[in-house]
């Protein structure tokens, strides 16, 4: 009855965990959820009232597949403000969350025989999305400041390599970020080997330590010359960028976007029309009105301050409560940190114990396309206040100590 493609796609382990974590007695570090206390509810209420009073017919009607022109223009101005990048609205497609961008790119670019290269560990949603279109997902090892470049080039030399998917800012699941030098070198390798870079940036605005770094796609010259210009200009034909409002406004809006060169955009638009005609006109109008009437940077600063405190709290609890033999990342932004248990440990076994004690996390194995990573796990710090983090981490530390003692 079922297609071969759907049979090779794994279930979302995270979505299954979230069902368990809905129990109010469970302190959850599992989902990649923004803090609901930071949703701009009152300001969205104001935007909602305004669009219904002033332009209800157009906001409730079908819209263009490309998306609301004013919202696409806002996105272009945001790239210019943040990075000095000149992006044309004609190269922006509004999607139903950036997750749809992964699906559309997979449909348009990836054949069953193609190899998609991504990070190891890598975003589970991307593993799912690309598994629909190829049976070959290869992962490149991450170091402390980005991918292992020798490993990356080896994989790019493979005959069927076509696409490199990367999250260079506060990567999901590791929380790691690419250094400036790694960004330049990744851009060079993509250009050298004719690899399309798919650069996802859901967390880049959430930096609470260090300096903001430019997108990989901004190093135009490094991609081999058919760009809009030199460094600081979008690389065009070799580069696709994904963005979203989910982490800086509200995920329930489901407003994301793809920035792609003309030739690819033409095909993405066809795939978008076939998928859902267009992203909700109503939520696009709501999002744009909110952005037009409010200072997004002011709101993001509030998010950064909250997440800085929550991340610091989680790191402190790891240092104080957990055994010395575990390792963990110390992210400078985003929503996650990554924990490595001693070799031979199973984070899935630990998860089963932790749920019984009322705390949830995500075991690391689903983030590896080859099923490895059994001794790793992802912790989310954005969706729990400091009091809950302290209590949840004490519970988790107790479970871990008991587990290690019984090995």
What structural class do you assign from the helix and strand content? alpha/beta
Beta-strand content estimate = 5-15%
Shape: globular
The counted number of beta strands is 14
Largest sheet: 8 strands, mixed
Would you spell out the secondary-structure blueprint of this structure?
Layout: H1 4-7, H2 13-21, E1 27-28, H3 41-60, H4 69-83, E2 92-96, H5 97-109, E3 115-120, H6 124-131, E4 136-143, E5 146-147, H7 149-156, E6 161-166, H8 180-193, E7 196-200, E8 239-244, E9 255-259, H9 262-276, H10 281-293, H11 296-321, E10 327-328, E11 336-340, H12 347-356, E12 359-360, E13 362-363, E14 376-380, H13 386-406
Parallel strand pairs: 1-12, 3-4, 3-6, 6-7, 7-8
Antiparallel strand pairs: 2-9, 4-5, 8-9, 10-11, 11-14, 13-14
Describe this structure as you would to a colleague.
The chain has 407 residues and is α/β, with parallel strands linked by helices. It is built from 13 helices and 14 strands. The chain has helices at 4-7, 13-21, 41-60, 69-83, 97-109, 124-131, 149-156, 180-193, 262-276, 281-293, 296-321, 347-356, 386-406; strands spanning 27-28, 92-96, 115-120, 136-143, 146-147, 161-166, 196-200, 239-244, 255-259, 327-328, 336-340, 359-360, 362-363, 376-380. It has an 8-stranded mixed sheet, with helices on both faces. Strands 10-11-14-13 form a 4-stranded antiparallel sheet. β4 and β5 form a beta hairpin. α5 packs parallel to α6 (124-131). Residues 225-230 have low confidence and may be disordered.
